[in-house]
């Protein structure tokens, strides 16, 4: 079988490529059937442009895109046929690499150095297995889990040599199709017939899917008591803790896992999401940055996550009482926004890149009270006419609506973000995204609620002839719900009567300018209200200019 296939060798060592090529040549495979590269990005381009049957990839590439990410790209974009082979080779057999390979689950892996006989035999073994089970593997790749489980029953009898491999696929399909009760019975039975860990981990996942979180947690902790560096058990334990609303404990588990293996970029993303859930936004920004650095150049790259670095820094600035730190965080956020380039291979990608960048600019402008700039950007976004598939971009658009105090658009966009949560291929990542969505919702709703209450207080004080108190509450409310045109009119009215003593003249000028702009550009005010707003703005501006 090995002689009829097309090969791609990926290794950052020309010597290693020459050795593997010689081994394949000795097995009767011509150089015409073998492509090779020492460059990770070129490897991805070759895989996208050509059809290969077998990929032999070094794990430790001298590039931020390692063998694990190349394999992830192959899976994400289906760059190999269902019966194609991806084999990792590595000269590093440390715990970090081994645990990552356990998480990745390539078709096979070899530790360097290896003999030609072992090398070719291992390729032949995997090829034979995948060829025999091709219809099953194709069904799994197409996410046709019902067909896959039906084929598992048939192939289990026809191919007893691959029983364990088929059983693992069967259990995974039951979990992916959320047939958790069947999965529980299946894994419970499998545990009786093998000492391998996979049925016990699957059993815990099934319990978690059924909502039996205490039992699931016990299963994973029992595994970790004996195998403390088992990555899948710890990952799913963290998932149980997230589901149990114990986010700090889940975060601790991910940090323990990260110490064993820091190569997995999805873990960086999950950790960042959980920090954001806990409103530790500065740490979240660092996590998002680490993720982006690792996945740049792959399909895992997200314009929204890049923008989230800046958004997290801005959120961190809201929660600090230290003026120096506030300035530092905003400057860093501003720098990150300006560094974000508009790019992408397709028109849709370039559009998403542009919107993601603009949303960051708009949130920054909104937090500074520069409402005109925010509103201009908001008016360019129409997710109904031109949808965006990036969860983080959509979430940031919802945040923008929330910061601007536009509740109707905010609610609609949060619904779209909620629908995008389930598109990930990692269940624990989905959990972290759901938690991030919920935390964002609580944060924004609190902001809208507090802003609305301040608006009411401002009007009450104004009606009670407490102009100074009304002015203070109105200005505070403006930074929470700036698109509230009744509030903007009140600020113009009050500032025309008295200059706020609690703010600098330049800041006051910016607020009243924004308030006048809202009153003139909002569709709700009547013509006479707009005219009155313009008159009040002129009076307020004269008063403020005297202070400059």
Give a short summary of the structure.
The protein is mainly alpha-helical and 548 residues long.
Describe the structure.
This protein is mainly alpha-helical and about 550 residues long. The protein folds into four domains: about 1-140, Response regulator (Rossmann fold), CATH 3.40.50.2300; about 145-260, Serine Threonine Protein Phosphatase 5, Tetratricopeptide repeat (Alpha Horseshoe); about 265-420, Serine Threonine Protein Phosphatase 5, Tetratricopeptide repeat (Alpha Horseshoe), CATH 1.25.40; about 465-545, no CATH class. Helix content is about 70%, strand content about 5%. The chain contains 26 helices and five strands. It has helices at about 15-25, 40-50, 65-75, 95-105, 115-130, 135-140, 145-160, 165-175, 180-190, 200-210, 215-225, 230-245, 245-260, 265-275, 280-295, 305-320, 325-340, 345-365, 370-380, 390-405, 405-420, 425-465, 465-480, 485-495, 505-520, 525-545, and strands at about 5-10, 35, 55-60, 85-90, 110. It has a five-stranded parallel beta sheet with strand order 2-1-3-4-5, sandwiched between helices. Helix 4 (about 95-105) links the parallel strand 4 and strand 5 (about 110). The longest helix is centred in the last third of the chain and has 37 residues, at about 425-465. The protein is elongated and about 90 Å long. The termini are far apart. About 45% of the residues are buried. The model has no long low-confidence stretch (mean pLDDT about 90).
């Amino acid at each position: 079988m090995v002689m009829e296939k097309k090969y791609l060798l990926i290794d950052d060592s020309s010597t290693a490529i020459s050795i593997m090529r010689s081994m394949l040549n000795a097995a009767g495979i011509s150089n015409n059937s073998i492509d090779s590269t020492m460059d990770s990005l070129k490897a991805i381009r070759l895989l996208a442009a050509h059809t290969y049957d077998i990929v032999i990839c070094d794990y430790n590439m001298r590039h931020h895109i390692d063998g694990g990410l190349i394999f992830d790209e192959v899976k994400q974009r289906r760059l190999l046929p269902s019966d194609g082979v991806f084999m990792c080779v590595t000269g590093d057999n440390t715990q970090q690499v081994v645990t990552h390979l356990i998480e990745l689950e390539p078709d096979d892996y070899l530790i360097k150095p290896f003999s030609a006989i072992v090398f070719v035999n291992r390729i032949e073994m995997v090829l034979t297995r995948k060829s025999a089970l091709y219809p099953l593997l194709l069904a799994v790749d197409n996410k046709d889990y019902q067909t896959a489980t039906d084929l598992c029953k048939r192939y289990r009898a026809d191919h007893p040599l691959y029983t364990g491999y088929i059983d693992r696929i069967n259990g995974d399909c039951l979990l992916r199709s959320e047939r958790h009760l069947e999965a529980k019975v299946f894994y419970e039975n499998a545990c009786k017939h093998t000492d391998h860990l996979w049925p016990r981990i699957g059993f815990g996942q099934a319990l978690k899917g059924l909502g039996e979180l205490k039992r699931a947690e016990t299963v994973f902790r029992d595994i970790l008591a004996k195998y403390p560096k088992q990555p899948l058990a710890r990952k799913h334990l963290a998932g149980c803790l997230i589901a149990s609303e114990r986010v700090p404990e889940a975060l601790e588990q991910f940090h323990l896992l990260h110490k064993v293996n820091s190569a997995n970029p999805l873990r960086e993303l999950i950790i960042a999401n959980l920090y954001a859930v806990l409103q530790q936004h500065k740490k979240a920004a660092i996590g998002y940055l680490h993720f982006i650095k690792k996945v740049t150049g792959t399909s895992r790259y997200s314009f929204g996550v890049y923008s989230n670095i800046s958004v997290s820094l801005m959120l961190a600035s809201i929660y600090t009482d230290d003026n120096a730190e506030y300035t530092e965080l905003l400057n860093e956020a501003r720098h990150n926004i300006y560094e974000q380039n508009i790019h992408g291979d397709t028109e849709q990608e370039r559009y998403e890149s542009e919107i993601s960048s603009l949303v960051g600019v708009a949130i920054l402008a909104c937090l500074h009270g520069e409402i005109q700039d925010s509103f201009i950007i908001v008016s360019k976004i129409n997710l109904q006419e031109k949808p965006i598939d990036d969860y983080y971009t959509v979430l940031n658009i919802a945040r923008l609506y929330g910061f601007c105090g536009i509740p109707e658009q905010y609610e609609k966009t949060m619904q779209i973000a909620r629908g995008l949560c389930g598109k990930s291929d990692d269940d624990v990542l989905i959990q972290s995204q759901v938690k991030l969505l919920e935390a964002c919702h609580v944060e924004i709703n609190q902001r809208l609620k507090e802003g609305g209450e301040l608006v009411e207080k401002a009007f009450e004080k104004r009606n009670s002839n407490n102009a100074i108190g009304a002015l203070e509450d109105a200005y505070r409310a403006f930074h929470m719900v700036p698109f509230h045109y009744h509030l903007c009119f009140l600020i113009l009215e009050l500032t025309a009567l008295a200059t706020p003593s609690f703010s600098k003249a330049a800041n006051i000028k910016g607020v009243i300018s924004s308030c006048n702009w809202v009153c003139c550009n909002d569709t709700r005010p009547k013509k006479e209200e707009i005219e009155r707003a313009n008159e009040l703005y002129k009076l307020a501006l004269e008063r403020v200019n005297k202070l400059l």
